[in-house]
Write a structure and sequence with these properties.
By secondary structure, the protein is mostly beta strands. 7% of the residues lie in helices and 34% in strands. It is globular, with a radius of gyration of 18 Å. The relative contact order is 0.26.
Length: 248
């Protein structure tokens, strides 16, 4: 297994770009458990019975109800769009553009971002994590569903981040597939991650709480990475890559 951690990460202002993040592959259930990571995604370990049990956590909102007024709250990428090529030449840098859907009551001041992947043979799994620092905007404050499934027509896409994902490891260029996920995480989860972004074990545990969701994977499928594919564009801006909804 080759696990590739991006060593650099950056704080970006709302008008800038940040790069950085993290990925992990879920462990398989082997008939009995000692900890949550022994279970499938979305399950937890009942250590008394040594059985995996569905957690049934709510993934429709990152915080519910939202506070009416707040300052400098950490807000994860819940819904939005991601743009990237789905066929990439092995060894070439793959551009990824992310635009979170933000409720108009939020004033975003900055954001941070991290990404990572790991490969087992020719199959790779990647995670992209993004969080914003936001305050309630104006005197009216935020409605209860500001971090939930508010009407898509209200989405504000002013915060944009683009980064380049490597398609090679210490063993050379990847030739296979990569499943890129923008995982669901609550405001509280992301605040814990933001406090120590280098704590990969905590990130894995928090992501593992929630079941895998193809709606949080671009086009619901893996990216094909082969030598025969054309080199990707250097940027996905200006319509250079297809875009896919996340979380709607």
């Amino acid at each position: 297994m080759d696990r590739h951690f991006i060593g650099h990460w950056a704080l970006g202002m709302a008008f800038g770009v940040a790069a950085g993040a993290v990925a992990c592959a879920p462990r398989s259930d082997s008939g009995g458990c000692a900890e949550d990571l022994d279970c499938a995604r979305g399950d937890y370990c009942d250590t008394t019975a040594r059985q995996c049990v569905a957690a049934d956590l709510d993934t429709t909102a990152t915080e519910s109800p939202a506070e009416a007024t707040f300052t400098d709250k950490i807000v994860p990428f819940h819904r939005g769009e991601i743009c990237l090529p789905m066929e990439v030449q092995s060894g070439a840098g793959m551009p990824v553009l992310m635009r979170p859907c933000v409720h108009p009551c939020l004033a975003v001041s900055s954001f941070e971002f991290r990404h990572d992947f790991e490969c087992v043979g020719s199959s790779c799994d990647a995670l992209a994590l993004m969080w914003m620092i936001a305050s309630s905007d104006g005197t009216a404050g935020c409605p209860a569903d500001a971090f939930g499934a508010f009407d898509q027509s209200q989405c504000v896409y002013d915060t944009e981040v683009e980064f380049t994902l490597a398609t090679e490891t210490s063993n050379g260029p990847i030739r296979g597939s990569m499943r890129l996920e923008v995982p669901f995480l609550s405001n509280a989860d992301m605040a814990q991650i933001a406090a120590n972004p280098e704590d990969h074990d905590t990130i894995e545990q928090l992501v593992h709480q929630y079941p895998e969701d193809d709606g949080r994977v671009p086009d619901g499928r893996s990216i094909s990475i082969l030598s025969s594919h054309p080199a990707p564009p250097t940027s996905c801006r200006d319509g250079a890559c297809p875009c896919f909804p996340i979380g709607f």
